[in-house]
Amino acid sequence: MLIRGFGEEGQRKLKDSTVFIAGAGGLGSPVTTYLAVAGIGHLVIADMDVVDHSNLNRQILHWDKNVGDLKVKSAEEKISALNPSIRITPLQEKIDADNVFSLTNGADLIIDAMDNYPTRYLLNEAAIVHNVPFIHASVWGLEGRVTTIIPGKTPCLECIVPEAPPKEIFPVLGATPGVIGTLQVTEAIKILTGVGKPLINRMLIYDGEYLEFHEVPIERDPDCKTCSQLGKNEKRMM
Amino acid sequence: MSLKVILFANYREIAGSKEVLIHSPATTVKEVVDEVTAQFPGLIPLLYQEGELKRYVNILVNGVSIRDTGGLSTPVSDGNEIKLFPPVSGG
């Protein structure tokens, strides 16, 4: 990679990395695609769903011919053709409290490509337990949010969103998760290679309707039930 | 006094516009939000639960979160820009 600061060493770091991608949908599609072409050595992709026709406006890993297929199978097929040099582990699983820690074990980084907060909170806990970065994102319409969570150093997801908003059927323009997913990949690659400065202690808000970016400053909640006991470089014991 | 309130995601859908201009003697964030909800009552259940601001609602006054400046009692002054962000869940 010719970009300043990467070089062969940066590429080697990416090759030696394992990234857990939670969700192979709107965010998961660009996230998986760009991580694969960046040469991340091992991608673990978890999704329980099958491809629905309504997914095709944004879930670009899945094509019309894949309607009815498992999303992880469809994703593996495309990604292995895109970059046959990397390892892909497709997990057709519902992420729950019983399996989240084992599924994410061994990952150097967790990417939130989910569509609901209960699962996001589980991934947030897993990131804390494994002491790995967690790149959170969400989308709605022409809007998106993204922030990088470093356990013990930044607010965790429960500091930022202390209770889940009501479950909703969300509208989304296909390009919105494209924008946000590629920002997540930018963050992931920066963290894995040590290049640049990550999006920490602030939530980036993308307003596609007016093509504006805003930032919300975020802070650790000293009373957070999930991360308040964490100190610098401290692993939480479960 | 005039203030600009900027709405995001489903708040914007309820109001039908990105910005709401408030001309009033409001002195706190609560009074400004009250002005907005008086115009768009559909926002009330999205912002409040049992009279309290929902914990996941983010409000900034000139880019500073009200969480550390007194919550809804945070003072406002002429020309302030107030942003209301809900969390969004899609992925």
Could you characterize what this model shows?
- The complex is a heterodimer of chains A (238) and B (91).
- Chain A is built from 7 helices and 8 strands, in the order H-E-H-E-H-E-H-E-H-E-E-H-H-E-E.
- With 238 residues, chain A is an alpha/beta fold.
- Chain A has one domain (7-217): NAD(P)-binding Rossmann-like Domain (Rossmann fold), CATH 3.40.50.
- Chain A has an 8-stranded mixed sheet with strand order 3-2-1-4-5-6-7-8, sandwiched between helices.
- In chain A, strand 5 and strand 6 form a beta hairpin.
- The longest helix of chain A is centred in the last third of the chain and has 19 residues, at 175-193.
- Residues 232-238 of chain A have low confidence and may be disordered.
- Chain B has one domain (2-85): Beta-grasp domain (Ubiquitin-like (UB roll), Roll).
- In chain B, 24% of the residues lie in helices and 29% in strands.
- Chain B is built from 3 helices and 7 strands; from the N terminus they run E-H-E-H-H-E-E-E-E-E.
- Chain B has helices at 9-15, 29-39, 44-47, and strands at 2-7, 19-23, 48-49, 52-53, 58-61, 64-65, 81-85.
- Chain B has a 5-stranded mixed sheet with strand order 2-1-7-5-6.
- In chain B, strand 5 (58-61) and strand 6 form a beta hairpin.
- The model of chain B has no long low-confidence stretch (mean pLDDT 95).
- The interface between A and B is medium-sized, with 40 and 24 residues.
The strands making up the biggest β-sheet of chain B line up spatially as 2-1-7-5-6
Largest sheet of chain B: 5 strands, mixed
What value does the Rg of chain A take, in angstroms? 17 Å
Q: Output the CATH class name of chain A.
A: Alpha Beta
CATH homologous superfamily annotation of chain B: Beta-grasp domain
Question: How many domains make up the coordinates of chain B?
Answer: 1
User: Within the CATH hierarchy, at the fold level, what is the topology of chain A?
Assistant: Rossmann fold
Largest interface, by Cβ-Cβ below 8 angstroms: which chains and how many residues each?
A-B, 40 and 24 residues
